[in-house]
Amino acid sequence: MKSLNPNSHIALFLRYLSIEKRLAKNTILSYERDLKSLDKFITEQKTKTVEHATVADIQDFISADFKKGLSTRTVQREISSIRAFFEFLQESGERTVNPAKTVRSPKTKSSLPRTIDPDQITKLFKEPGKTFLEVRDKTMLEVFYSCGLRLSELVGLNLTDVSLSDSSLKVLGKGNKERILPIGEKAKESLVQWLQYRSDLKKGRDESQDALFLSNRGTRISKRNVQKRLAAWGLKLGIAEKIYPHKIRHSFATHLLESSQDLRAVQELLGHENIGTTQIYTHLDFQHLAKVYDKAHPRASRTKGR
């Protein structure tokens, strides 16, 4: 896909997202991919510039992507990107209306991973770490499950984000939003052990590297490396379920909610902006919410026999 003209409206919009909105680099790259695809479609299929796209043009673009087999979630993201772009053009005085405003996002079924059984979780953490890789991997597992982190949040952790004295962890989540999370005792013990191994590895190496979790080469561990190592641990320990970061995060949320029934607390710990996301994430349905409501609300009790 061709590079953008630095003076194009798309390029100006991306700079706005970076400078004014301060969105994460990966988020901006997603906007760029979506808008470049739209620009290519409008230019080639409609023989006009993207700035002059109509509602019908955008609907045709979305339909074409569905026919390509793109997932519902991807198409939803594309529509969101396009709406934001034309809203920017409106505010800049380039358009009087937002043609994407009335384009409907396709609905998607909730697709949630299965949770890891608590007994399997215990088995996962039972194996003691003896080598550099074992100690690191076990610590990553402990931190994932103790704090319910996203994969990007774990690999982005720095040494300064860990406070052993407060048993807390500072996490940079989606939209560059920070949250402070408690660290469980077992995860804290693993972190103490890992920091010693990490210190030994760093001797004689570039001291400017501040990542919490390192590869055996002394560089920040990659997302792909984490995924591979977790899957390998699951196989090594004979765990039936495939182990990957999102499944551990989902298990953290589900197990915590089952024990506490505190939806708001789980929402805060997961870093969800909308509580509806947390409801879907943790299998909450209306019947469960109704039971909690009936039990907790002072005006909800019903007298039997009436």
Given the helix and strand composition, which structural class is it?
Answer: mainly alpha
Distance between the termini: 69 Å
Helix % is: 55-70%
The 3D shape can be described as globular
| Number of helical stretches of at least 4 residues | 13
The profile of the biggest β sheet is: 3 strands, antiparallel
- Strand tally is 3
Strand content: under 5%
Strand order of the largest sheet: 1-2-3
Compute the gyration radius: what is it?
24 Å
Low-confidence stretches: none
Average pLDDT metric: 84
Element order: H for helix, E for strand: HHHHHHHEEEHHHHHH
What does this structure look like?
The protein starts with 8 loop residues before the first helix and ends in a 10-residue tail after the last helix. The model has no long low-confidence stretch (mean pLDDT 84). Helix 2 packs across helix 4 and helix 6 crosses helix 10. With 306 residues, it is mainly alpha-helical. It is globular, with a radius of gyration of 24 Å. Strands 1-2-3 form a 3-stranded antiparallel β-sheet, with no helix packed on it. The chain contains 13 helices and 3 strands, in the order H-H-H-H-H-H-H-E-E-E-H-H-H-H-H-H.
Topology:
Layout: H1 9-19, H2 25-45, H3 55-67, H4 72-91, H5 118-126, H6 132-147, H7 151-155, E1 162-163, E2 168-172, E3 178-182, H8 185-202, H9 223-236, H10 245-260, H11 263-270, H12 275-281, H13 286-296
Antiparallel strand pairs: 1-2, 2-3
Helix pairs in contact: 1-2, 2-4, 6-8, 6-10, 11-12
